[in-house]
Amino acid sequence: xxxxxxxxxxxxxxxxxxxxxxxxxxxxxxxxxxxxxxxxxxxxxxxxxxxxxxxxxxxxxxxxxxxxxxxxxxxxxxxxxxxxxxxxxxxxxxxxxxxxxxxxxxxxxxxxxxxxxxxxxxxxxxxxxxxxxxxxxxxxxxxxxxxxxxxxxxxxxxxxxxxxxxxxxxxxxxxxxxxxxxxxxxxxxxxxxxxxxxxxxxxxxxxxxxxxxxx
Length: 215
Description:
21% strand; six-stranded parallel β-sheet
């Protein structure tokens, strides 16, 4: 637990814990970035798949703070605008350019962070360089590894976040100071929870879908 950021509404505050902690742990515990002042990580390139979602929005901002070059995959023009405002260097629109095709004309990246799984995770293998990392919170990346990449020096990892009050307090501090942006896609009454889950599963939510228990 951590104090609620005073400048945020309850719905905005509720959007922080799972998304922000997942992004924090992905970058600083699983991707090998040792804090915001890690000189070895400055300039590294990270590809974030589904960057306009609740976790992706936090990960874009944290990676930018840590000095990484951020490349984001999104699908809608309004999401492209949002992600650029948050600090993304390049944007890939998956509706017009697949990751495997993108990798044929661009340098491969140091880190891939996947938020979609499936076919997209399979194509993500073409985007990461040797000795790089591919990380997913959806499914183990090796389950989608194309045959040609077996035996290569790419580290793959699947993880589920661990509760951490100190990390959450730091993220709450960022939000309260206005240094980082959290985003609520929509707020639903409890009796409309089925519609809320449908919105979440649609893949089109920008930020967090919040179900309000009372009020």
